[in-house]
């Protein structure tokens, strides 16, 4: 039998048991090793996610790793037993944006594992084989479950184009921020600063490669001195604050998921400072490939970010930790 968490509607869930799902042509069934819970999963559970980006009932879980257990008709049997992760966006591969390699901008309509398609808060998940990224046979699947947020950060780093010797700031020291520190440290910056109001998170950033950790008030005194600012927090004020940290002609990449009412970016400052501002939502196939490669080379080590692990039966307890405000809570995993 195969178990899965099903959220029928906001505020309620059930653990179902059924036959393992069968992969169709062009699909594989993966035995889930670990699945991370992020704030978007909490939003699904609480009913706060934009209705256009979720379809109830749903099995959440878009951050995961596992081992291929079965292939669909006509599939390559050599895939069975391979450790893997997979892209979440179900891009069409045919539209103009997909043809240009911008698969996260697919114009065929939104579809994503764990939001509109069954996700990995389950014993098994079925995904298109074209979305698989294979891992080394010795890969740590526990750590690899964080490769989805790592791919988002890889997309941000690609957009930010860090150069050796630059001054870089990362705003936010949550999962995305700490992964950003690891990847950006590999670009040989002259200075890598993390901005977060939580002292414990700042200290953790130092252990991941940051040169200095500042509170937002402390960072404000350095307004206009960073070549690149990567925003990861998604707090109401952090988009505007990140633009103030960048030097004239600097670059700002926004990766946080903002909610209505967030402080807007001052257009006067934007134009006079000649800033380049990019946003990232999800990750393209190329960004996924870069994250997987960095993980395989040891440039990216998500394992220290994990603080809690729960079985599927304790999903309610696990999801309550996410976004609960405890500074000691890092990445929370479900381990089927």
Word description of this protein:
There is one protein chain. By secondary structure, this protein is an alpha/beta fold. The protein has 2 domains: 2-146 and 302-334, Medium-chain alcohol dehydrogenases, catalytic domain (Quinone Oxidoreductase, Chain A, domain 1); 151-279, Rossmann fold. It is built from 11 helices and 15 strands. It has helices at residues 39-46, 96-99, 141-144, 147-160, 175-185, 199-207, 216-220, 238-245, 267-273, 285-297, 315-321; strands at 2-9, 12-18, 27-37, 63-71, 83-86, 124-128, 132-134, 167-171, 191-195, 212-214, 226-231, 246-254, 276-279, 306-310, 331-334. Strands 3, 4, 5, 6, 7, 14 and 15 form a 7-stranded mixed sheet that branches. It starts with a strand and ends with a strand.
* Helix coverage percent: 25-40%
- CATH level 4 superfamily of the largest domain: Medium-chain alcohol dehydrogenases, catalytic domain
* SSE arrangement, N to C: EEEHEEHEEHHEHEHEHEHEHEHEHE
* Count of domain modules: 2
> Can you identify the CATH class of the largest domain?
Alpha Beta
> How far is the first residue's CA from the last residue's CA?
12 Å
Number of strands: 15
Strand count, sense and barrel status of the largest sheet are: 7 strands, mixed
Q: What are the low-pLDDT stretches, counting only 5+ consecutive residues below 50? A: none
Mean pLDDT comes to 95
Structural class: alpha/beta
Percent range for β-strand residues: 25-35%
CATH topology of the largest domain: Quinone Oxidoreductase, Chain A, domain 1
């Amino acid at each position: 039998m195969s178990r899965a968490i099903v959220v029928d509607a906001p505020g309620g869930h059930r653990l179902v048991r059924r036959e393992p799902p069968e992969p169709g042509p062009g699909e594989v069934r993966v035995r889930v090793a670990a699945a991370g819970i992020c704030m978007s999963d909490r939003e699904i559970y609480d009913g706060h996610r934009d209705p256009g980006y979720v379809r109830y009932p749903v099995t959440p879980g878009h951050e995961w790793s596992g081992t291929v257990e079965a292939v669909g008709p006509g599939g390559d049997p050599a895939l069975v037993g391979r450790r893997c992760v997979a892209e979440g966006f179900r891009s069409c591969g045919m539209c103009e944006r997909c043809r240009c390699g911008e698969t996260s901008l697919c114009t065929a309509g939104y579809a994503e594992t764990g939001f509109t398609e069954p996700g990995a808060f389950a014993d098994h998940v079925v995904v298109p084989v074209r979305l698989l990224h294979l891992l080394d046979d010795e890969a740590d699947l526990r750590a690899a479950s964080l490769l989805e947020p790592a791919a988002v950060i890889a997309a941000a780093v690609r957009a930010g184009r860090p150069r050796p010797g630059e001054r870089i700031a990362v705003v936010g020291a949550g999962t995305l921020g700490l992964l950003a520190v690891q990847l950006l440290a590999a670009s040989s910056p002259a200075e890598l600063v993390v901005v977060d109001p939580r002292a414990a998170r700042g200290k953790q950033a130092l252990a991941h490669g940051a040169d200095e950790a500042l509170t937002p008030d402390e960072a404000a005194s350095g307004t206009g001195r960073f070549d690149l600012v990567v925003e990861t927090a998604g707090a109401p004020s952090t988009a505007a604050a990140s633009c103030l940290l960048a030097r004239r002609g600097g670059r700002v990449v926004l990766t946080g998921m903002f909610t209505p009412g967030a402080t807007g970016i001052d257009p006067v400052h934007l134009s006079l400072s000649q800033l380049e501002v990019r946003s990232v939502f999800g990750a393209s196939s190329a960004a996924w490939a870069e994250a997987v490669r960095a993980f395989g080379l040891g440039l990216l080590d998500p394992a220290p970010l994990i603080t809690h692990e729960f079985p599927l039966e304790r999903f309610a307890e696990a999801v309550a930790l996410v976004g609960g405000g405890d500074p000691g809570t890092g990445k929370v995993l479900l381990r089927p």
